[in-house]
Amino acid sequence: MDKLLITGGKRLNGDIHISGAKNAALPILCAGLLTSGDVVLHNVPSLQDVSTMLKLLRQMGLQVTQENGVTTLNGNAVDKLEAPYDLVKTMRASILVLGPLLARFGEAKVSLPGGCAIGSRPVDQHIKGLQAMGAEITIEAGYIHARAKKLKGARIVTDMITVTGTENLLMAATLAEGETVLENAAREPEVTDLANLLVAMGAKIEGIGTDRLVIHGVDSLHGATHTVIADRIETATFLCAVAATGGDITLKNTRSDILDVALDKLREAGVILTTGPDWIRAQMSGRPKAVGFRTTEYPGFPTDMQAQFMALNCIAQGTSRVTETIFENRFMHVQEMNRLGAKIEIDGHTAIVNGVDKLVGAPVMATDLRASASLVIAAMVAEGETLIDRIYHLDRGYDRMEVKLSAVGAQIQRVK
Ligand code: EPU
């Protein structure tokens, strides 16, 4: 199993090219199931989760070609309407095939994702929404079995804001009969990116980017060409890294307008940020100031950045309070950071981080994707060597992170 060996204390200087967003690419790949036309995608990131999704979609009969950085999907020959347990258990986003399969083929069988490291993460809202659209759904032997000759438009109010829930119902509604209204819809930029692709494929969607999506179902969708948006979480992860280590980096091929709250927090921590239409420059010297926050849905502070900002707070001046409101168990990195000398206490859904002068390298274990990224940041400021085990979590969602960080001066190497 691969590990990362990191020697801390290096400043970061140079340019980093940001990849396409994982959480936009995954639903967008599933949208390929909605049409028999070619869906041509640019800026699909090279990640383990993308490979897993493509493996699942190929098993269903989707044709996938990848040439010169362009991914082309063709759903003309899709004939296996099932997502098996062995793939779903490795990647919860597999649930995103449910809506498109049901809408286009009238049937889908998808393994129920189990709980995961960050929380129980049920999919009841996906099911509730599809049932409101007329689907008959049974759950048997660990599988969701959904059937509907033709989905019918409905008004759906989800109990909470759910990102993949919104995406699943949005994809299903594009081919339903009549009008679907999704109230309490997620407004994450990745949902908007999916909606923009669907519109390019011929879907009729109003309210894109708001919490009320109105979809007028059409008989069929056609092929389209689309560029996946930049990964805002990868962007903010590198910004946190430079905030912690000090230095001067410019992130290319990214966007600042979908990162407002995270950028405000970085400024509060002492980072000098300048932005352009597709780049962000971050300059940092001295010790960061502690920044408190509470995770919420977009446009609030992203839960996917909680761990990385906590790494920054570990070595900051002052004490911060970090409250996680989206997932019930997303503090697994805390014990590992404390092994590096951090002083963090957990009180329910809040972590109280007392900034220390320095961290000291030690062997640590990654527990989930964003926790892995936070340990990389902590290791880059820790004195001496840190060996991070179980970095397969990192590979699921970051495109060659150690290569990108080495290129700007980090001492980081992958060891077998
Ligand atoms: N929830 C339910 N029932 C549902 C759906 C959600 O109770 O049917 C709860 C969840 O348990 C959670 C909350 O609602 O407490 C929000 O979950 P959401 O459905 O929004 O999360 P998700 O769609 O499963 C996506 C991202 C996550 C990201 C969250 C929140 C993808 C593929 N995943 O997950 O990304 O943390 O939204 O923004 O888009 C990551 O990239 O590291 C990651 C975990």
Quick structural gist:
By secondary structure, this protein is an alpha/beta fold.
Number of helices: 14
Radius of gyration, in angstroms, nearest whole number: 21 Å
Strand content: 25-35%
Gross morphology: elongated
| Assembly status | single chain
Structure description:
Belongs to the EPSP synthase family. MurA subfamily. Pfam families: EPSP_synthase. With 416 residues, this protein is of the alpha/beta class. The chain is built from 14 helices and 24 strands. It has helices at residues 22-31, 48-59, 85-88, 98-105, 124-132, 163-174, 189-200, 232-245, 260-269, 306-314, 332-339, 369-381, 392-397, 401-407; strands spanning 3-7, 12-17, 38-42, 63-67, 70-74, 82-83, 107-111, 136-140, 143-147, 155-157, 179-183, 204-206, 212-216, 224-227, 247-252, 272-276, 279-284, 293-294, 319-323, 343-347, 350-354, 363-365, 385-389, 411-415. The chain has a four-stranded mixed sheet. It has a four-stranded mixed sheet with strand order 2-15-17-16. Helix 8 runs parallel beside helix 9 (260-269). The protein is elongated, with a radius of gyration of 21 Å. The model has no long low-confidence stretch (mean pLDDT 97). The structure holds uridine-diphosphate-2(N-acetylglucosaminyl) butyric acid. Uridine-diphosphate-2(N-acetylglucosaminyl) butyric acid binds next to helix 1, helix 5, helix 6 and helix 12. Uridine-diphosphate-2(N-acetylglucosaminyl) butyric acid (EPU) binds next to helix 1, helix 5, helix 6 and helix 12.
